[in-house]
Amino acid sequence: MVELRKRREAPSTGPEPPLKKSIPATKAKDDIDATEAALPVTAGVEADRKLTVGATIDLDGFGGEVETQDGDKTNLKKLVNDSKNGVVLFTYPKASTPGCTTQACLFRDEYTPLTATGYSIFGLSTDLPKSNTTFKTKQNLPFTLLCDPNAILIDAIGMKKGPKGTTRGVFVVDRFGRIEAVEPGGPAATVEVVRKLVSDAGRTTSVNAGNSMEAQAVQKNPEDDDNNVQDATAASGADSSGNQADVAAEVADTAEKLDGGADS
Predict the structure, then answer these.
(1) Which residues contact 173 (CB under 8 A, 6 or more apart)?
(2) Which pLDDT tens digit goes with each residue over 153-168?
(3) Per residue in 180-208, pLDDT tens?
(4) pLDDT tens digits along 203-238
(5) What is the DSSP track for the chain?
C-alpha cells in the first residue's frame, strides 16, 4: 500500500498592503510648472523657459561675463547700471556679413533718436574681439560690440540658435531688470522695436509734463490773490489821488481867472 503524504500549505503572508495612490501625470506637471514659475529667471534656464515682456530678471550673474571689442570684461548688470534708462542688445549671427552689416548700420544711422530717452545700445554676437573691432571700425559704429563666444548671454536672453548659432533679434531691459522687449527679427524689424519703445516713452513723458503743468495751475498760492487785491487797491488809490489833484488844479485856475477879471 502506498502512503500518501499530506501536502504542506504555503505560509500565510498576511493581507496585501494597499496600493499607493498614483498622482496623475498632468497634476505632477502642473506642480512642477508652478514651482519653476516662482523661481527667479537666471542664466541657464532659458532653454526651458521663454522670457516675456513685463517679467523682471535677476541681473546678478545673468548671462555671465562678456568682452567688449576692446577686450574689456563686463556683464549685463554693469551695463544696465551704467545706463540712464536701460540697455538694448541687438544680436547678430556674424560680424561683417551682409545682413549683420545692414542691421548694425541701421542702428548706427538712428543712434541719436534711439538713445534720446536714455537707452544704451550694444551689439552682441559670438564673434571674437578682433572680428568685432574690424566690424566697428569699418562701419564707423558709435556703440560698443559685445563678444560672447560661448553664447552664455545670448542663450540667457533666448537668442541662441542650435549648438553654435545666434538668432538675429533684440532684447531690451530697463534699469530695474524689467524686460521691455524680447523679439527675433530681421535688421529693420529689430530697429523698429526700439523705435516704438522710444516713441511710447516720449508720449508718456509729454502727458506727464502736461499733467504737471495743469496741477501747478490749479494749485495757486493764496498769497498771490492777496497781493493782487493789494495791487488793485493801491492802483485805485493812486488814480483817485490823481483825479483829486486835477480837480484842485482846475479850481485854482478858475479862481485866478476870476481875480484877474475883477482887477480889470
Answers:
(1) 57, 59, 76, 80, 86, 87, 179, 180
(2) 999 999 999 998 999 9
(3) 999 999 999 999 999 999 999 888 665 55
(4) 866 555 555 555 555 555 555 555 554 555 555 555
(5) -PPPPPPPPPPP--SPPPPPPPPPHHHHHHHHHHHHHTSPB-TT-TTTS---TT-BB--TTTT--EEETT--EE-HHHHHHHSSSEEEEEE-SSTTSHHHHHHHHHHHHTHHHHTTTSEEEEEEES--HHHHHHHHHHHT-SSEEEE-TT-HHHHHTT-EETTTEE--EEEEEETTSBEEEEEE--HHHHHHHHHHHHHHHHHHHHHHHHHHHHHHHHS--HHHHHHHHHHHHHHHHHHHHHHHHHHHHHHHHHHHHHHHHHH-
* Cα distance between residue 228 and residue 65, in whole Å: 64
How far apart CA 164 and CA 149 sit, in angstroms, is 9
Catalytic residue among 59, 80, 95, 100: 100
100 is catalytic: yes
pTM for this model (two decimals): 0.64
